[in-house]
C-alpha cells in the first residue's frame, strides 16, 4: 500500500556553493516567500552546528528564521508529530552536507509525501572533494543552483572554500575564523602555503618528540 501512495506535486531544489556564497540567505528567502504565499513551512539544520544556538538558522549577515536542529533527517517526522508533518508543504534543509540520510529523506518527502524540499549545502569540502550526500541528490532535483562568493584575496568570483588552519578532519565547524572563500588561483596558492605550514609544524613536532625522548 505504501508503494501506491501517489505523488502530490513534490519538488526538490538544491542550492550549493562554497561558504559565504549566500546559500543560507537564498534558502531563507525561498522559504519565506513560500510562507508569504500561504504555504506551511519548516526549516531543518544539523545539530552539529551550534554556533548561533539551536533554535534558529542564521546567515553570515545575521538574518534568521526559527528551525529544527536535528542529528538526522529521519527523526523529523517523529519530532514534530505525524499530524504536523502532514500539514507541512515546504521543508528547507540547511548544512545538508552533515545529513547522511539526505537522499532517502528527499526521495520520500518529494516522491511520496508531496513536499517541496529546498536543500542548501556545500557541494565540496575544503579539499574540493564531494561533501556528504549533497551531490547524490542532484539526480532527484527539479533545479540546481550553484552560487559563488567573492574571493577574499582578489575580489574575483570565489568557487572554493579555503581552510586557513592546518586541521585535517573533514568536519570542522567554523566561520570566517577558520575558512575563507577563494577563486581558483588563490585556492591553489593557499593550499600550497597551508601544506608548507603543516610540514613545518609536523617536523617541529618530530624534533620536540626526539628531544623529549633523549632527555635524561
Ligand atoms: N568573501 C565573501 N564573499 C561573499 N560574501 C561574504 C564574504 N564574506 C562575508 N560574506 C557575507 O556572507 C553573506 C552570505 O551569508 P550566507 O547566506 O550565510 O552564506 P552561506 O550559507 O553560503 O555560507 C553575504 O551576503 C556577505 O554579506
Ligand atoms: C569547507 C568545510 C566547511 N565545514 C563546515 C564549516 C561550517 O560550519 C559549515 C558550512 O557553513 P556555511 O553555512 O556553508 O557557511 O561546514 C566543514 O566541516 N568542513 C569543510 O571542509
Describe this structure in words.
- The chain has 216 residues and is of the alpha/beta class.
- It has two domains: 9-147, 3-Layer(aba) Sandwich (Rossmann fold), CATH 3.40.50; 148-216, Wheat Germ Agglutinin (Isolectin 2), domain 1, CATH 3.30.60.20.
- The protein is 31% helix and 22% strand.
- The chain contains five helices and twelve strands.
- A six-stranded parallel β-sheet has the order 5-2-6-7-1-8. Strands 3-4 form a two-stranded antiparallel sheet.
- A hairpin with a 5-residue loop joins strand 3 and strand 4 (64-66).
- The chain binds adenosine-5'-diphosphate and the ligand Cc1cn([C@H]2C[C@H](O)[C@@H](COP(=O)(O)O)O2)c(=O)[nH]c1=O.
What would CATH call the class of the largest domain? Alpha Beta
Helix content: 25-40%
Separation of the first and last Cα atoms? 75 Å
- The CATH superfamily of the largest domain is identified as P-loop containing nucleotide triphosphate hydrolases
Q: Indicate the proportion of strand residues.
A: 15-25%
Which blocks of ≥5 consecutive residues have pLDDT under 50?
Answer: 1-7
Largest sheet: number of strands, sense, barrel closure: 6 strands, parallel
User: Rough shape?
Assistant: elongated
How many strands in all? 12
- Count of spatially separate domains: 2
Mean pLDDT: 91
The CATH topology of the largest domain is Rossmann fold
Architecture blueprint of SSEs:
Layout: E1 11-16, H1 23-36, E2 41-46, E3 56-58, E4 64-66, E5 68-70, H2 76-80, H3 82-87, E6 90-93, H4 102-112, E7 116-121, E8 143-146, E9 149-150, E10 157-158, E11 160-163, E12 179-182, H5 184-214
The structure holds adenosine-5'-diphosphate and the ligand Cc1cn([C@H]2C[C@H](O)[C@@H](COP(=O)(O)O)O2)c(=O)[nH]c1=O.
Binding site for substrate: 179
Keywords: ATP-binding, DNA synthesis, Kinase, Metal-binding, Nucleotide-binding, Transferase, Zinc
Pfam families: TK
Amino acid at each position: 500500500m505504501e508503494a501506491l501512495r501517489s505523488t502530490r506535486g513534490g519538488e526538490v531544489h538544491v542550492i550549493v556553493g562554497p561558504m559565504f556564497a549566500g546559500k543560507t540567505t537564498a534558502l531563507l528567502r525561498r522559504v519565506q516567500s513560500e510562507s508569504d504565499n500561504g504555504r506551511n513551512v519548516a526549516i531543518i539544520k544539523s545539530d552539529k552546528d551550534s554556533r548561533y544556538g539551536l533554535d534558529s538558522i542564521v546567515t553570515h549577515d545575521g538574518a534568521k528564521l526559527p528551525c529544527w536542529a536535528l542529528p538526522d533527517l529521519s527523526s523529523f517526522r517523529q519530532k514534530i508529530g505525524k499530524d504536523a508533518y502532514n500539514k507541512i508543504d515546504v521543508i528547507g534543509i540547511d548544512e545538508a552536507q552533515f545529513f547522511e540520510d539526505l537522499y532517502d529523506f528527499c526521495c520520500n518527502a518529494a516522491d511520496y509525501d508531496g513536499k517541496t524540499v529546498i536543500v542548501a549545502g556545500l557541494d565540496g569540502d575544503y579539499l574540493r572533494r564531494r561533501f556528504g550526500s549533497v551531490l547524490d541528490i542532484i539526480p532527484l532535483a527539479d533545479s540546481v543552483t550553484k552560487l559563488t562568493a567573492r574571493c577574499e584575496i582578489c575580489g574575483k568570483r570565489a568557487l572554493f572554500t579555503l581552510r586557513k588552519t592546518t586541521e585535517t578532519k573533514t568536519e570542522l565547524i567554523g566561520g570566517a575564523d577558520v575558512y575563507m572563500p577563494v577563486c581558483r588561483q588563490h585556492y591553489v596558492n593557499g593550499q600550497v602555503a597551508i601544506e608548507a605550514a603543516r610540514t613545518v609544524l609536523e617536523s617541529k613536532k618530530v624534533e620536540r618528540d626526539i628531544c623529549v625522548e633523549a632527555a635524561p
